[in-house]
Amino acid sequence: MENKMNDNRVPRERVAILIDSGCDVTEELIRQYNMKLLRLHVIYPEKDYSDDLDISPQTVYERFPGEIPHTSTPSPQEVKDMADELKREGYTHVLAFAISSGLSGTYNTMCSVLNEEEELTSFVLDTRNISFGSGVLAVWAAQKLEEGMPYEELVRLLPGKVQDSKILYYMDTLTYLQKGGRIGLVTSIVGNILNLKPIISCNCEGVYYTVAKIRGSKQGMTKLLAEAKDFAGDGPVWFSLLNGNAAAASNEMLKRITEALPEGKHLLSKQIAASLAVHTGPGLLGIGILKNP
Known about the structure:
Layout: E1 15-20, H1 27-32, E2 36-38, E3 41-44, E4 47-50, H2 57-63, E5 70-72, H3 76-88, E6 93-98, H4 106-114, E7 121-126, H5 132-146, H6 151-161, E8 165-170, H7 175-179, E9 196-202, E10 208-215, H8 217-232, E11 237-244, H9 247-260, E12 264-271, H10 274-280, E13 284-291
Parallel strand pairs: 1-2, 1-6, 6-7, 11-12
Antiparallel strand pairs: 3-4, 3-5, 8-9, 8-13, 9-10, 11-13
Helix pairs in contact: 2-10, 3-4, 5-6
């Protein structure tokens, strides 16, 4: 007699990890965890470019300072198309990660579209962060899924995990942050003659604020490392290096932070996405930390 047992089984949940390109997850990690990617847009007069697909951050830097493009979120239709793709591929659940709603409209777009998808159970996390400060939470969730953590448990844990992730940026200039309207709570520095450089981060509301103002790049690098080490504490951490046309500085910082965080695991070093380069300008160096991975 044919066994009919399988007919009454609840279909096994299949969870997709969805990120936006501002999360700065590398192609290698996207492939490793089979993540799905929504791209932000970089808009010049001649064309609307897809973030890191048909425009690179290097192109943005080369067109500075004469040309400063605009950026935009993935469109509702792009999110809908992604949802349709996920359903075709057999996914039943979605964990979506968006850069801070205080810096981008991507979170709201994801929520409005995915909430209408009756065939997908979805959770969208406002990471209240930027770059790999956001992306590392997706990597953490993907790893937990591989280890067998249920979807509902991740939905319960992720909002609290946000406070364990921090990214700190050393900024060579605030010009592009100001022109792009992303200045947030960062105090404007008038004293360029004094060579003051800011270190910024995202606060608990996901808005940029000034961590410190340092005179000169050498002291800035030292302070950046000190702030990262202070946030990391003494336990295990994941750390990452992000740069904006500052690869040499990133390589040097990698040596220093590896020594400073003996309990740390280096996840990635990369140049930030083109969409983020628009608002931060050249000379940026960032350190991302995730505590208790």
